[in-house]
Design brief:
The chain has 118 residues and is mostly helical. The protein is built from four helices and no strands.
């Protein structure tokens, strides 16, 4: 159940990020809506909480856990690049956006393989 919720929040998180970038580029006024400001934070908080629940529920910290550390480090890069994408415009925005998507893909790869920095 928790894993399914976590995967749902992953999809919602990446979808909302892509939608917010598109809105920022083409319809920035829509980002001023209260829902557009609050929903991503709620989704990302629930994503992190379900992820932490999975780590502790799966007792993953008792064994080899380097992959979890890798995911956290790349998550921080993803957040930084996402902030850069939202705060910049033009080609800079798209460069940050592409970097964030690469980080997201790498996090996904680590989650599937359970190996950090492959």
């Amino acid at each position: 159940m928790i894993k399914s919720l976590h995967m749902l929040f992953i999809l919602l998180s990446i979808s909302s990020f892509i939608i917010r970038i598109m809105l920022a580029e083409f319809k920035p006024a829509l980002l001023q809506a209260k829902l557009a400001k609050i929903a991503p934070h709620v989704i990302d908080t629930l994503l992190i909480l379900t992820g932490l629940t999975l780590v502790f529920q799966g007792n993953w910290l008792s064994a080899e856990y380097g992959w979890i550390i890798s995911k956290i480090m790349i998550l921080l890069a993803y957040i930084g690049l996402g902030i850069g994408a939202m705060r910049n415009s033009g080609m800079k925005r798209w460069a940050y956006f592409a970097g964030a998507l690469v980080c997201f893909g790498y996090i996904l790869l680590i989650a599937i393989s359970k190996h950090g920095f492959i």
